[in-house]
Amino acid sequence: xxxxxxxxxxxxxxxxxxxxxWAADDLRxxxxxxxxxxxxxxxxxxxxxxxxPEPEADDATE
Length: 62
What we know:
45% helix
């Protein structure tokens, strides 16, 4: 899996509180909720990123 990018994000406190409540309702972290919302917005705008291919597992047994 590629390394995840780090980002400093400044939010209005009311926006943060709303996202934090939404995250808690969905049993997600605030970070995961922001990524979820961004992915939804990208999909709605027709800009969904291409999935990163998973490395093939070595199924050989000895």
